[in-house]
Amino acid sequence: MQLDERKYKILQAIIRNYLETGEPVGSRTISKYTDLNLSSATIRNEMADLEELGYILQPHTSAGRIPSDQGYRLYVDKMMEEKEREVEEMKETLLEKEDKMDHLLKQAAKMLAANTEYAAMVSAPQYHRNKLKFIQLSRVDINQILAVIVVEGNVIKNTMLTVKDEISDETLLKLNILLNTHLNGLSLEEINLGMISAMKQQAGIHSVIVADVIDAVAEAIKADEDLEIYTSGTKNFFKYPELADHERASELITTFEEKQLLSELVQDNLADENNTGIQVYIGNETPVQGMRDCSIVTATYELDEGMKGTIGIIGPKRMDYEKVVKNLKLLKNQLDDLYKK
Amino acid sequence: MQLDERKYKILQAIIRNYLETGEPVGSRTISKYTDLNLSSATIRNEMADLEELGYILQPHTSAGRIPSDQGYRLYVDKMMEEKEREVEEMKETLLEKEDKMDHLLKQAAKMLAANTEYAAMVSAPQYHRNKLKFIQLSRVDINQILAVIVVEGNVIKNTMLTVKDEISDETLLKLNILLNTHLNGLSLEEINLGMISAMKQQAGIHSVIVADVIDAVAEAIKADEDLEIYTSGTKNFFKYPELADHERASELITTFEEKQLLSELVQDNLADENNTGIQVYIGNETPVQGMRDCSIVTATYELDEGMKGTIGIIGPKRMDYEKVVKNLKLLKNQLDDLYKK
DNA sequence: GTTAGCACTCGACTAATTAGAGTGCTAACA
DNA sequence: TGTTAGCACTCTAATTAGTCGAGTGCTAAC
Questions:
Q1: Protein A59 CA to nucleic acid D4 C1', in Å?
Q2: What pLDDT was estimated at residue A339?
Q3: How far apart, in whole angstroms, are the C-alpha atoms of residue A248 and residue A241?
Q4: A249 and chain B in contact, CB less than 8 A
Q5: Model pTM?
Q6: Strand order in B294-302's β-sheet?
Q7: Mean of the pLDDT values across residues B76-100?
Q8: Alpha-carbon Rg for chain A in angstroms
């Protein structure tokens, strides 16, 4: 059996209707809903076929049909093709350029959630080029030294070091020069033990400081390992009865709170090299445990070269994919553009 | 009518039982539960009195009684007196000393939630002595200047400034000296317009940089205004049917997600000068909208002099106050001690 | 002051009934 | 051959009625 034009139209009608109502869709509804002018009986025959093909399901004998994961998948794939161009032109600037990155991203998550009425997540960009750019030691207090470490991509780390013995200005200057000449432009892998001991030797009695600074450097460079994820719109889960029962909701909320559980999503998304920008996970396709009853739509944005992050929407399988995709593309574009100037 | 010893014992028994079961408590249950050796009929009479006094409520005619807010209040007040000493000795070290404050506090929230099975919040400490300690400008890139600003209490703010024209090392040094001599040791209020324009004049063509730095200083000092709050254990709301219906849960979760809504709690807590450390809000006493059906227990910790924060537990009115208070005191002590050494 | 006893109330639960939406199948029609 | 009308059947959701039991208030006796 084949999926011809008419079958697809009926499937589309079923899905559309189900997205709106959340109720199983009957043959009579479709008979009126579409412009095919077919009787409910004919629709019934077609629906039986669609069920056999695996695109729709019957929750119980005398109920209407609901889309299966496979059905959603077909629908989404076709929709994506169609909508590809549509978003191009619409570029409003909703995001104000916040000075602080984390504010900006929190804001973005909030906006996504508000616009779509689903739950939203935004991951902070991960840096992948991590070379040391600059180190500076300054005396802040009688026995406190501030070490500022700047990594490529302008990630900044501050560490306060406490020293026992007072250090003269000249010594501090020397240490600064020592550190910068040895370490600037290097990545974590390039800083080896030999280099470290050489530096320590040159630092003499101040080798402790050198060791402390190097620790801080290591931490600054690998700082991106703990991935920041912002979420918003948790309460939207309650809008969809199929997600709102205690057990499911509890699981979803936990996953959303323990943001690290969402990192799979980010990894999965960033790993996919040749992705067109938007990724859709339906039901069991999800990489996140505990979201098997949901659909997840994600997009990758790129702030600066190599600084990629993920934005995503989590909602019921009957989510309004078109709206969601539109919103994600919009935000993606905005984020992409934000630091281009 | 007076609340005598026997009435209080009955009230206590009602509350204890209700805390456990979450079901209205009947007279017969109390008759067996207590060691008063009274028949259910007598208890009934006493219960009628307690209801008249406002300590207990009857959800409907033929149900048992549940404690009113006033009843909980009495119970908590008495309990607090009794337990005051008990916690003193128990000091385990559960918290590993994390190097990063935000990790530590997130961890703390998680621990609280896990131990109590209620929802937990932890606010980052707010600094109140905000004098400028140190400013440093350094060249990082050909046209990028890093401004590091250190405020008393070792709060550090970094800002990257982009300059059009190259700046020589001497100029940078001069600017550094200029800024430090003028601004060090001053609070936000003490930096006035006259001083700023004087500095700008001295800076000559580099007055733009001075302006930028001063903006950054202002921001660094008032940075504590956007209060960080960490939460955990949202899902625990579902453990208590009286909080778990859709409407209530949705509201609670929103409040918990929009952490700023919890700031009232922190403000309220920190404002109360002569508090003994633990504060209990029962039902309508809460300062947080949307938590009227909950009880909230908070404690104030003090990391370093003047660096105060709030920890708190949010749960149903029938929460296990004793356990909660114990846990909060424990964590409070740990946090208090943490930076004492 | 305490207790036993009794009539009464009211929610929770169960079972039975009903209404309605939807199906599959068959036979007739174009 | 594809389409449609019609009908018997199925299953759920909602309603109703009935029962159970926990708990109360009140009265009268101890």
A1: 27
A2: 67
A3: 10
A4: yes
A5: 0.81
A6: B229-232, B119-123, B308-316, B294-302, B278-282
A7: 56
A8: 27
Question: What Å distances lie between residue B32 and A214, B10, B36, B47, B64, CA to CA?
Answer: 68, 11, 9, 15, 15
Closest CA to A15 of A62, A72, A64, A61: A72
Which candidate from B148, B253, B257 shows the least CB-CB separation from A146? B148
Which of B156, B160, B257 shows the shortest C-beta gap to A232? B257
The mean per-residue pLDDT over the stretch B205-228 comes to 76
Distance from CA of B259 to the nearest CA of A (A): 11
When comparing pLDDT for B36 and A114, which is higher? A114
* Tokens 């509350």 belong to residue: B15
Q: How many CA atoms lie within 13 A of B264 on its CB side?
A: 14
Give me the domains of chain A, ranges plus CATH numbers.
5-67 (1.10.10.10), 93-126+227-338 (3.30.450.40), 132-225 (3.30.390.60)
Rounded to 10°, the helix B169-183/B207-221 angle is 40
Residues of chain A neighbouring B154 (CB-CB closer than 8 A): 140, 144, 160
Beta bridge partners of B165: none
The H or E element containing residue A191 is none
Quick count: other Cβ atoms within 10 Å of Cβ B273?
5
Tell if the CB–CB gap between B148 and A134 is shorter than 8 Å: no
A337 Rama class: left (phi>0) / alpha (psi -120 to 50) / beta: alpha
Q: What is the pLDDT of residue B162?
A: 78
Determine the Cα–Cα distance for residues B269 and B308; give it in Å rounded to an integer. 10
Residue A338 β-bridge partners: none
pLDDT of residue A47: 92
Residues 6+ apart with CB under 8 A from A142: A166
For B251, the closest chain A residue by CA position comes to A235
CB contact under 8 A, A238 and B246: yes
**Statement: the CB of A2 is under 7 Å from strand D:** no
Residues of chain A with pLDDT under 70: 83-100, 127-130, 153-155, 221-226, 273-276, 339-341
Length, in residues, of chain A: 341
Q: How far is the CA of B294 from the C1' of C8 (A)?
A: 35
Provide the pLDDT for residue B127. Answer: 67
CA A14 – C1' D13 distance (Å)? 22
**Between the CA of A38 and the C1' of D4, what is the distance in angstroms?**
9
Question: Which nucleotides of chain D does any protein CB come within 7 A of?
Answer: 3-6, 9-12, 21-27
Report residue B45 as tokens.
Answer: 């009479």
Is B235 within 8 Å of A246 when comparing Cβ atoms?
no
* Strand D contact with B44 (CB < 7 A): yes
Of A140, A148, A244, the CB nearest to B246: A244
Token pair 């205690």 in the structure block, residue: A246
Q: Which tokens go with B274?
A: 């002569």
For residue B220, CA distances in Å to A237, A330, B230 come to: 38, 33, 21
Token pair of A205, please? 């009695």
Q: What does pLDDT average to over chain B?
A: 83
- End-to-end, the C-alpha distance of chain A in Å comes to 54
Of B148, B231, B244, the CB nearest to A148: B148
